[in-house]
Amino acid sequence: MLPKENLESLIANCGFGQSSVDGGWWEWWPLGGSGKDEVVMVEEDGLTPRINGEIPDLSDATLDHERLSERLATYGLAELQMEGDGNCQFRALADQLFRNPDYHKHVRKKVVKQLKHFRKSYESYVPMKYRSYLKKMKKLGEWGDHITLQGAADCFEVKICLVTSFRDTCYIEILPKDKNPSREIWLSFWSEVHYNSLYGVGADLDFSRHFTDVPTRAPRKKHWLF
Q1: Dihedral of the alpha carbons of 155, 160, 166, 167, in degrees to the nearest 10
Q2: Which of 3, 33, 74, 194 is least crowded, fewest Cβ atoms below 10 Å from its Cβ?
Q3: Annotated catalytic sites, by residue?
Q4: What pTM value is reported for the model?
């Protein structure tokens, strides 16, 4: 958890966004770039449907990474790098929740199950047929988006604290719907393409030394049943 004084400074010195499905979304993603896939402005009464943005060019990505690195250094945060295999959002969530990014499959399954069972809470924010979206999102390697982040916050009852490389909004909170979060978890989001797990500088990142609960491994099934 980020020290209170660091969090207050982070909010005071850079753009701040907060989200919750029914409570309205504020500055969820700032408007950036010129491509139509990057139009991500949000109205106060709900989300504007969006899809993941295009991969930035090398120059933009470098500037974004420098901006993010400076923010993390300023507020005493360090990234634990996640593999860039399309599962990075779920790996980062798994690392924060279970101290093991290899549980990303379990996290993805739980999030997709949340989105399926509470369809009415999320469907209007998805710019494609909802069934097709769920079918796509359950596949390994499919990038997570802002809907899966909200689904994770709701499913695991956590506040997701997101430090971004965005020029105008560097800190975003994703709050669970109709529930008080049981804990908070910290992720970084770089250049709209990659998530990492965040810890305070000097934190012990040796997984073997953590004894937090991990998901139970169920017997493997031929078909994935919700």
Answers
A1: 140
A2: 3
A3: 85, 88, 194
A4: 0.72
